[in-house]
């Protein structure tokens, strides 16, 4: 009978150690899953940003290369349609940023 008491104590101790190690592995794996999700979201945002940047560069080049068409101004409809229309022009000066 004296040998039965230590066996029960050892069994309870091994169950506690097993439970704690399972909890610890669950915490570690959940942390790894959260980290993987965060890294995945950062990668997706980076890819979208690069795609938008390339698209913007492509469209800006396309706009700069297309010929400038001289559009005739259509007089506005209304009471002042017989008055002289004033033309205003806006000039865009591209600013080239240096990459770092």
TrEMBL record:
<dbReference type="GO" id="GO:0043220">
    <property type="term" value="C:Schmidt-Lanterman incisure"/>
</dbReference>
<feature type="transmembrane region" description="Helical">
    <location>
        <begin position="32"/>
        <end position="52"/>
    </location>
</feature>
<dbReference type="GO" id="GO:0031641">
    <property type="term" value="P:regulation of myelination"/>
</dbReference>
<feature type="region of interest" description="Disordered">
    <location>
        <begin position="60"/>
        <end position="89"/>
    </location>
</feature>
<dbReference type="GO" id="GO:0019911">
    <property type="term" value="F:structural constituent of myelin sheath"/>
</dbReference>
<keyword id="KW-0472">Membrane</keyword>
<keyword id="KW-0812">Transmembrane</keyword>
<feature type="compositionally biased region" description="Polar residues">
    <location>
        <begin position="78"/>
        <end position="89"/>
    </location>
</feature>
<dbReference type="GO" id="GO:0032290">
    <property type="term" value="P:peripheral nervous system myelin formation"/>
</dbReference>
<protein>
    <submittedName>
        <fullName>Non-compact myelin associated protein</fullName>
    </submittedName>
</protein>
<dbReference type="InterPro" id="IPR038940">
    <property type="entry name" value="NCMAP"/>
</dbReference>
<keyword id="KW-1133">Transmembrane helix</keyword>
<dbReference type="GO" id="GO:0033270">
    <property type="term" value="C:paranode region of axon"/>
</dbReference>
<dbReference type="GO" id="GO:0005886">
    <property type="term" value="C:plasma membrane"/>
</dbReference>
């Amino acid at each position: 009978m004296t040998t039965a008491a230590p066996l029960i104590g050892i069994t309870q101790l091994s169950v506690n150690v097993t439970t704690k190690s399972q909890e610890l592995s669950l915490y570690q794996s959940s942390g790894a899953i959260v980290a993987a999700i965060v890294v995945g979201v950062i990668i997706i945002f980076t890819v979208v940003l690069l795609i938008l940047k390339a698209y913007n560069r492509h469209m800006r080049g396309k706009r700069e290369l297309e010929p400038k068409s001289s559009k005739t101004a259509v007089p506005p409809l209304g009471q002042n349609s017989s008055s002289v229309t004033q033309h205003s022009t806006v000039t865009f000066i591209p600013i080239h940023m240096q990459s770092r």
